[in-house]
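haha ok so turns out i had the wrong file open the whole time. this is the CORRECT one, sorry everyone. sequence first:
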Amino acid sequence: MKICCIGAGYVGGPTMAMIAHKCPDIQVTVVDINEDRIAAWNSDTLPIYEKGLAEIVSAARDKNLFFSSDVDTAVAEADIVFISVNTPTKTYGTGAGKASDLKYIELCARKIAEVSTTDKIVVEKSTLPVRTAETIRTILDNCPSKVNFQVLSNPEFLAEGTAIEDLLDPDRVLIGGEQSPEGLQAIQTLFDVYARWVPREKILTTNVWSSELSKLTANAFLAQRISSINAISALCEVTEADVDEVAGAIGTDSRIGPKFLKSSVGFGGSCFQKDVLNLVYLCEHYGLKEVAEYWEQVIKMNDYQRQRFVQRIVKTLFNTVSGKKIAILGFTFKKDTNDTRESAAIYICRDLLEEQAEVHIYDPKVSKKQICHDIGVAEDHPGVTVASSAAEACQDAHAFAVLTEWDEFKELDFQAIYDQMLKPAFAFDGRNILDQQKLRDIGFQAQSVGRS
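then structure:
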């Protein structure tokens, strides 16, 4: 069997590496038109940082795992073609700001139709709106070679930072397809690939529409929990309650559970905001106004949490941060990844720059080029400095703000950091990972999320 994946990003690369690792008899080829990205996958410096990924890639690469920019050949030779390209929120036309931009999905479908001369199973791996499989099938049905295609939905449920663990031991693998004899056979083919290492009871099969909607719903529910606890954090700050204690108390309820109840500066990443907005757009499209408004509030609360954090910094620093140095510790949207997409740090840095602050940023996995690109400033912008360490970022700073929960920030020598900061020295823990009392004992004016 030969498998091809179009898209060498955060989903396609690790997923295909795991399939190749667990199925040495299957030839797996990951293709992308971005030649620099392909070159990085073929080098010792992968374009994606995930614990354990480099070891899996190096073990299988050039044996049964290949990375190539020759899209036509890989697609033409494949028995199964995964589509794992970006589906960003539209910035233009109908649905701008909410709907998914499916132009890359359509281009993939047209390419598959163009070069295919043998029957293929086409697998949606990207997160897509419900009924997208219908669009893909319509394009494939006009393949000039008149070959047979089956379209499956196989959404990813990876958490960045733990992607390899999630692939090795997933909560579930979901496969949706047509409930016809041909569709069921295609589902079984992909089922058998995953069953090489995933317990069969964890592989769920549905119709294709349920599978597509399940991915959006899963991310919406997770985002909803984060916005819910963040809403309570605002109440905690004005009532002298402790949001972590509240989360701990409700998390012991077996009907609720403890996960995704960690208050912070808000969620980020490539999926949550995009998928919730997509769900909002779908509900609006089908005339479900009240449902759309319900889910849109999840995004509004996330925006509010970030804005509130900046307002708290400004208010605490005597109602102005103009000309003041603020150290930003962490820029990725979560620890153990180099992904900065929709990171809370981007928005907080922009807002601080609007207030004419000078931000000095340190993150162990993000380059200056990426940081400046995300914020939307030139690399020589006078208000943005990228430091090589947390201590350097905090030198002569008025305040520091923890925006990513990197483990190394818990181990910093805060006495030494305090000694080199301007006084009074302020500490804002946007991830609630630091010992607030210890910081206060040192001399910091310390604040965290969800505590007065």
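The first strand starts at residue 2 and ends at 6.
again sry for the mixup
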